Amino acid sequence: MKVLTDLRQILGEQGVLDADTLSERAAGIWRQDESLSGIALARPDSTGGVAKILAYCHENRIPVITHGGLTGLVHGADTQDDAVILSLERMNRIESIQPNQRTLTAQAGVTLSAAQEAAAEEDLIFPLDLGARGSATLGGNAATNAGGNRVLRYGMMRDLVLGVEAVLADGTVINALNGLVKNNAGYDLKQLFLGSEGTLGVITRLTLRLFEAPQTRCMAFTGVSDFEAVKGLLRHMDRCLGGSLSAFEVLWSDYYALVTSPPARSQPPVPHGHSYYVLLESQGVDAELDQQRFQAALESALNQGLIADAAVATSERDCEGFWGIRDDVDQVFVDGPALLFDVSLPIDDMEYYVAEVKQRISNTQAKACWVFGHVGDGNLHLAVQTPPSVITDRRTIEQCVYEPLAACKGSVSAEHGIGLEKKDWLPISRSQAEIDLMTSLKRSLDPKSILNPGKVVDA
Ligand code: ZN
Known about the structure:
By secondary structure, the chain is α+β, with helices and mostly antiparallel strands. It has four domains: 2-87, Uridine Diphospho-n-acetylenolpyruvylglucosamine Reductase, domain 2 (2-Layer Sandwich); 94-212, Uridine Diphospho-n-acetylenolpyruvylglucosamine Reductase, domain 3 (2-Layer Sandwich), CATH 3.30.465.10; 216-329, Alpha-Beta Plaits, CATH 3.30.70; 335-418 and 429-435, 2-Layer Sandwich (Alpha-Beta Plaits). Helices cover 31% and strands 21% of the residues. The chain has helices spanning 2-11, 19-22, 47-59, 112-120, 138-143, 151-154, 157-160, 190-193, 227-240, 253-259, 287-303, 316-326, 350-362, 394-402, 426-429, 432-445, and strands at 16-18, 40-42, 64-67, 84-87, 94-98, 103-107, 124-125, 161-167, 173-176, 202-209, 211-212, 216-224, 245-252, 276-284, 309-312, 338-344, 368-374, 379-385. Strands 15-12-14-13-17-18-16 form a seven-stranded antiparallel β-sheet, with helices on both faces. A hairpin with a 5-residue loop joins strand 8 (161-167) and strand 9. Helix 9 packs antiparallel against helix 11 (287-303). The model has no long low-confidence stretch (mean pLDDT 94). Zinc ion binds at residues 147, 374, 381, 415.
């Protein structure tokens, strides 16, 4: 086949897998039973290789779908028979760390956990963290603007990347690698590529922002009686902890019951019966002083009626156990299939929003709707349990979850992106003028629409 031969001429035999070989690979970390499809899978080991592949595909109008660790959840990396898959798996080198500048420069195929470990060797942290850290790549994290558990303190990927090198659809290399925190010399070009899900260019290298590593952490699970108190508690803890609050995770009572009752492994650290459960984490540098301050903040919260009960972690093991409860999302699949959603909205609208969604869901065949999330960031996760027959009618459930967001100007995607899955719902969160501007950016950067075609917006 001509394309395969041409690609092998560009990258060498090792650099390209044919259609049969690539079909032996799984479509994603969560989709082991589906396989990849495409003309070929190209595995360049340098930016120059990526540029040559893109120039060739641009010339010949061949779709290119870029792959990182394939841990996405919104079908943002779905392949098609007539496309070349561009995998950055061989571009997995950490190039340098500048401890004084507190930056790390790496190729896009480096895994998140490898970057975290490299930072740790210099007593620094790269604070982005999420469950799929061992597989997810920096390029994928950047292309999808990943979030995770410590956004409250450090921000999302858009806040953590100081510079990128990216290749445009026609093979032009844009080197915007830059380790400066302040850089107001014109448009912030890197932001074109961050969160664009591989539709505007291919990120090949990144310079990340590192932070001094916290030395200690304090954690508590608290029971809270109403949502007004949840909102009050967020402000109270943030005020009392002087900027060290690193997580404010809320579990609605039915989700808390699910993840702290058999068959879940965890025991409830705070008894069942409260309306909300808030997981609090603060990171600091002085074990004794931090614990005193954390304890004092909890006591004053108790005195003000912001919390009804609390269990304080007394060891690192307790801390791991508390996070284990919050992150035991697999429990939603124990009794059958479930659909997962990530939305964001103003905290003042959350109580009404959740009540409205639960009301709407109760009129469908769905069996349960669990809610939990990074409430400190305005981000809720919803898991809707459905009988197997309903899985095909996902749209009805999506309607229940997404439509009420319009009234409070919420977002249909807090952290997972748009991909194919949420494209139809984009108008809930974006005006027509915004979508038109996104489309014209797409047409300007990728005039032949070869980059991850059909994802995010149509062009
Ligand atoms: Zn999340």
